[in-house]
């Protein structure tokens, strides 16, 4: 039972106010005495008509305080690294709705307030979309400029990136559209010559120095100001959306530092992306904006509905995929996703995408990141290589998860984790030194993916498009590959090996790091290589059985860019285990709507192969690595154990610590609180009967007693505490009594000792419980907390139960 994080609050003591926007939820460190949230009607007037006695005697002027006739600041709030009570929060919201509906019939002003309350959710979604879209546009523009800064600077305006610098030049040719007099490389500025060995060395050194500077600034800012700004944030957001409390994870400092350091980390050239962290940024926006609306700031369950919609807006601006964002939130991160949240997520994603489109960070008047121009049909037989790419994606996903988790565990358990700044600098130096000589690793990963997705026309200057043109009247026919294509294939093969291994050690470092773009890059490289191979097979061996009948000589049979798209989807699916949302994101990302079937085939194959090797996706694996108390709804619990096998206390353990409904003094309760680490106590009729009355939280007891000492005369250590509905007459000489019935949950969830654990697990998942009491013939036997269930689930699969670190 030693589980300080799992407890239930009273249905009639639900106060969850906040004055600190850094908090995901409130732990009571800051108490607002002006909070007057609704009090549920249970036992509201039970003491009317009954005489109450205290230390002043029958005719005394002082009266006993019946707690929660007025709200007590802090009662019903949550501590850090605890789980919220979903049932209590939803009950509180229903009560608030009921009161608003009743008042709206009384006056026009109350009716307008009711309409305002109903509209506030949509207004909040509008603000989240605007804020997330604006920040995403700022991050995109800044990252593009700083990435180009590693290679040179624009003389006509240092704030222009390479592409924008050459847009206004009249001396740019179509073939060399990235070269113009206004853009100077560092070698041209320092030594005055663009080419030669010395110029190459200067450019090399400047590339590495800028990369080290950016990464050093990123890790230093994270370490000094916002440690929660590192990583992608999606594992923690999944945990928060399941009801866990990580105070400050979605606060204003995390938002500011994550926005700045995300630009720095991406610009440094590390093998990471900004798409995952953008979900974290959007959720920070949602959490901060919740404080503008009382119904969201004071209700943790309602706030999580907003965060689900904010996650959808984050993916919307990350990929230019509003529908994919909604599906991603539903499939991957959300724990509780009612239909109302679906509509609001759709609206938030729409506003965020519109805002980003208005900013136009890519300069191409399109929302999509990697727009594809080709629309060539694909043949049924091409499903074979598409499925092969799915198999590769599944193998890569399983390999990446195992190796990355092993590396992260080593980082946590060895001296490596003590030097995060040094680790980031070493990895950055290795990345920059190896990346610069290869054209396909020197450019940003987004540019690489865009080039791999692109189909070749006659005017393309890329080495991947160096085909021998026998027929100049057509631009899209299959052609023989030129020497530069084979050079590019070797470089891509080396880039593939480099990306696979460097991403393993990069993801999880103390800088903002997303996994979407590196995974897409690995798959896109593999797919493009396979696509070129298939294209050349079709060109030279069009009479083979597999090509006969659908690929005639000189026809446009194979589209290598399509293979890159399919490979990218397969690898991202293998790592994250997404399916529906992945396919929708991919066709929104590229505009390739006619390629849904190949994408679906690759995504499904990838998931099947990866699941055959290991059931967990990368985010679930990191949740388990960090020991967060997350009950995965997708997993089945098939073991035949009973509630009595899991509950505390076990056999030979000390008996369950309980409170009795009467006969306790303030000093007895204070001693019990100080000597135990439990987060709550069952209340019973008597120690002999063990008949259950309710459950009271340790936190609510502490706050109530402290308030009583300040606000009620005569409360001393020897004062009696009652959890009963009526107080028996007291002798005139006795000190004042303290009635705490209303901080007690009168309807705690209970199961019998012979209830199957699979049913108990389902109850915890579907109701979001923190603890459940176990009874036998109405007598209290023990307690099961969420942590007990997670430990039990770890034990039955031969894992270390102590890996569940948080309460």
Automatic annotation (TrEMBL):
<comment type="similarity">
    <text>Belongs to the chloride channel (TC 2.A.49) family.</text>
</comment>
<dbReference type="InterPro" id="IPR046342">
    <property type="entry name" value="CBS_dom_sf"/>
</dbReference>
<feature type="transmembrane region" description="Helical">
    <location>
        <begin position="383"/>
        <end position="407"/>
    </location>
</feature>
<feature type="transmembrane region" description="Helical">
    <location>
        <begin position="119"/>
        <end position="139"/>
    </location>
</feature>
<dbReference type="GO" id="GO:0008021">
    <property type="term" value="C:synaptic vesicle"/>
</dbReference>
<feature type="transmembrane region" description="Helical">
    <location>
        <begin position="204"/>
        <end position="226"/>
    </location>
</feature>
<keyword id="KW-0967">Endosome</keyword>
<keyword id="KW-1133">Transmembrane helix</keyword>
<keyword id="KW-0868">Chloride</keyword>
<dbReference type="InterPro" id="IPR001807">
    <property type="entry name" value="ClC"/>
</dbReference>
<feature type="region of interest" description="Disordered">
    <location>
        <begin position="1"/>
        <end position="20"/>
    </location>
</feature>
<keyword id="KW-0472">Membrane</keyword>
<feature type="transmembrane region" description="Helical">
    <location>
        <begin position="278"/>
        <end position="294"/>
    </location>
</feature>
<feature type="domain" description="CBS">
    <location>
        <begin position="647"/>
        <end position="711"/>
    </location>
</feature>
<dbReference type="GO" id="GO:0005524">
    <property type="term" value="F:ATP binding"/>
</dbReference>
<dbReference type="Pfam" id="PF00571">
    <property type="entry name" value="CBS"/>
</dbReference>
<feature type="transmembrane region" description="Helical">
    <location>
        <begin position="306"/>
        <end position="330"/>
    </location>
</feature>
<keyword id="KW-0547">Nucleotide-binding</keyword>
<keyword id="KW-0677">Repeat</keyword>
<dbReference type="GO" id="GO:0010008">
    <property type="term" value="C:endosome membrane"/>
</dbReference>
<dbReference type="GO" id="GO:0005247">
    <property type="term" value="F:voltage-gated chloride channel activity"/>
</dbReference>
<feature type="transmembrane region" description="Helical">
    <location>
        <begin position="488"/>
        <end position="508"/>
    </location>
</feature>
<dbReference type="Pfam" id="PF00654">
    <property type="entry name" value="Voltage_CLC"/>
</dbReference>
<keyword id="KW-0406">Ion transport</keyword>
<keyword id="KW-0067">ATP-binding</keyword>
<dbReference type="InterPro" id="IPR014743">
    <property type="entry name" value="Cl-channel_core"/>
</dbReference>
<dbReference type="GO" id="GO:0005886">
    <property type="term" value="C:plasma membrane"/>
</dbReference>
<feature type="domain" description="CBS">
    <location>
        <begin position="744"/>
        <end position="803"/>
    </location>
</feature>
<feature type="transmembrane region" description="Helical">
    <location>
        <begin position="562"/>
        <end position="587"/>
    </location>
</feature>
<keyword id="KW-0812">Transmembrane</keyword>
<dbReference type="InterPro" id="IPR000644">
    <property type="entry name" value="CBS_dom"/>
</dbReference>
<feature type="transmembrane region" description="Helical">
    <location>
        <begin position="246"/>
        <end position="266"/>
    </location>
</feature>
<dbReference type="GO" id="GO:0005769">
    <property type="term" value="C:early endosome"/>
</dbReference>
<keyword id="KW-0050">Antiport</keyword>
<keyword id="KW-0813">Transport</keyword>
<feature type="transmembrane region" description="Helical">
    <location>
        <begin position="515"/>
        <end position="534"/>
    </location>
</feature>
<dbReference type="GO" id="GO:0015297">
    <property type="term" value="F:antiporter activity"/>
</dbReference>
<dbReference type="GO" id="GO:0005794">
    <property type="term" value="C:Golgi apparatus"/>
</dbReference>
<keyword id="KW-0129">CBS domain</keyword>
<protein>
    <recommendedName>
        <fullName>Chloride channel protein</fullName>
    </recommendedName>
</protein>
<feature type="transmembrane region" description="Helical">
    <location>
        <begin position="419"/>
        <end position="436"/>
    </location>
</feature>
